[in-house]
Amino acid sequence: MQTIVAFPEELILVIFSKLSVKQLATCRLVCKAWRDPAARAMFSQRITIRSEMQALQLYNHLTRDPNKLYLINSMHFKLDQADLPFVLHHLLHLTFNKRMKRMTGRVKSDQFFTTLFDIADRAPPSTFNRLERLPIYTGQNSDINDRKYLKFKNAVHSFSLRVVSDSQSLDGVSWRDVFDQFPNLTRFTLSGAPNGLGAIENKLEKCHRLKELYLHDIFYDGLTMDRMTREQMMAWTANNVNRERSLRTLIVKALCRPELIEYLLYKYPHVQHITIRGRLWFPNNSIRLEHYNLNRILDAVKGIHHKHITFVLPSYIEMKQVIEFVITRNEDIGFTIEHFDGQDELVMKIDSH
């Protein structure tokens, strides 16, 4: 005699939570009793929308069974067209609510995001406090990203700021004044032309939770900035720099002056991984100053275990002079010829894992 045992619904839901959406769809067809718990498990997982047809199918299902709407908290979009299909507009109005936690993917349509902005404008201020992610905007309208950052501040995890004449965007946003309003901002890229170390500090001083900082193609007045001794740098940083202890990864691709590296490692004393790549600053073609600057930079990074350093050496330096410097240091220093800014250059490399 065959015995059929019915599993408690709580156990079925636990089992279903481990299955893929495709497996859950099969379970719905196997057993009538599994249909509803399988559907609930499906809608509790991340839902991916790649086409207008998928959006229509989801929209039809939710309008037939509105109770499933309250299970949705994660959606992934892959939409590479500039226009937003009509059904997607309505789907966003259905699904984008206070229960939504993650909307990921890549979207080109401006209207996709303006629809989200309109929904948020009509909702109470705290409605989207749980929202952790929004899709990456792949269109050309910079205003969309500006509005996205300002409208959904909890969803900002990374930010890129290019400094031209100031830190304002075309609509007049002073970004450095709102960085401390982004509680989840952990990755920051700074590029462009801040006017000296003080201007870099001005842009970074309200970023209190950074884990990764990337200085890329940054021109910080390094060629003309007044030279400061190690002692002068210590005094300047003590009086002008707010220290932050959360940063773990620092990547610098710029003209390599000791003042820049000393400033950054004073500001971020708990860096564990550092990458530096750039031309070594060489004022007045002085070998003595060259060695002095190298010593200051290498002393600054000495305590960091994971480091990848590539210095492009001045063309006038001879290998004999380089060797004379290397034997004064304890680091494992190597040399090679690399293509840099369109020409072959002698580079010094230090890799420590």
From TrEMBL:
Matches recorded under InterPro entries: F-box-like_dom_sf, F-box_dom
Ranges that cross the membrane: none
One Pfam family per UniProt: F-box-like
Start and end residues of each F-box domain: 1-47
Superkingdom of source: Eukaryota
Gene3D superfamilies membership: 1.20.1280.50
CDD domains: F-box_SF
Protein name: F-box domain-containing protein
Organism the protein comes from: Mucor circinelloides f. circinelloides (strain 1006PhL) (Mucormycosis agent)
